[in-house]
Amino acid sequence: MKKVIGCDVSKHFVILHDGENHFYIDDSNLDLAKEIVNDAIVVLEQTGAYGIRWSYIFSDFGAKVFIADGKEFKAFRHGHTRKKDDYIDAFYLRKFYSDKQKRKYCKPFNPLMYSLRSLIRQHIRNDKDITRHTNRLLQYLAVIFPYEEYYKLSKKQLIKKLDEIEQNLKLSPHHLSTLALMELKKLKTSTQEQEKLEKEIKTIARNHPDYEILKTFPSFGDILIATLIAYYWDIKNFKNLDAFIGYVLMGANYQQSGKTLRETKTDRARTEIKGKLKNALSGLKRKFPAPNILTT
Fold first, then answer.
1. What confidence tier does 294 reach under pLDDT thresholds 50, 70, 90?
2. Which 8-state DSSP code applies to residue 219?
3. Rg (the chain; Cα; Å)
4. d(C-alpha 108, C-alpha 66), whole Å
5. Which sequence spans correspond to the domains of the chain?
6. Long-range contacts for 232-238 (Cβ within 8 Å, ≥24 apart)?
7. For the whole model, what pTM was predicted?
8. Long-range contacts, stretch 82-89, CB < 8 angstroms, 24+ apart
9. Domain at 4-109: CATH code
10. How confident is the model at residue 85 (pLDDT cuts 50, 70, 90)?
């Protein structure tokens, strides 16, 4: 049976726990890390770029890397102790995987899945930037060109007219024209970056085996499909549709009283997915508007 090692990740180092001892690992003693994790199971908490970096390193060293679900692990640790430091986390990550009931919340490290998640998060940030730059530019245009109707343009309409607006701003003597041109340049840059990002996201999604299944849902575009895939990856992990819906839409709040841990379901989870689904629903409502009951 393979040995199980818990791993807590910090920016400059990691703490490993093999069931008996803790090990401090950084770039200066990677040979020791290789000796410890070779042919072992290493369990990390769901984490960001630094965790992914170490996941790659441990995989190269011959380990089988698993990522523990962050919320489930937090509840598990709180059920045992309220203390928190790197050594305690490493210890309980190992125990979390060793618990057969909790092992289902530990998923094998998949580099492509975490790359897709990073792309999706950046896509959401870019979309917010585009909205912010659009609103600021429209406000400037309303002041600089009071007799034009630029301020009435939608986001898509404005982006199509950026070249025309840029020329008009360069000819305008208004003291806010410089600020408007700066905002326009930011909007152009963000839009171009978003187009490149969407191309990469769609390429990954369209090559995924679940793409054709999700494409059958009305109003599911490629970006929404990619977002769903990024957060569950393999639809075969779910025994039925309810389990799938529960995973992508529902989370849980945990309250502890003594040794009792109470779980309350909540929909305040996975905001990336819910945001995309909300947009899809809005598009569906525009395409198939509800009848006006006052006139029917």
1. very low
2. T
3. 25
4. 4
5. 4-109, 113-206, 211-287
6. 233/107, 233/110, 233/113, 234/210, 235/210
7. 0.72
8. 86/8, 86/10, 86/15, 87/8, 87/15, 87/17, 87/22, 89/6, 89/8, 89/15, 89/45
9. 3.30.420.10
10. confident
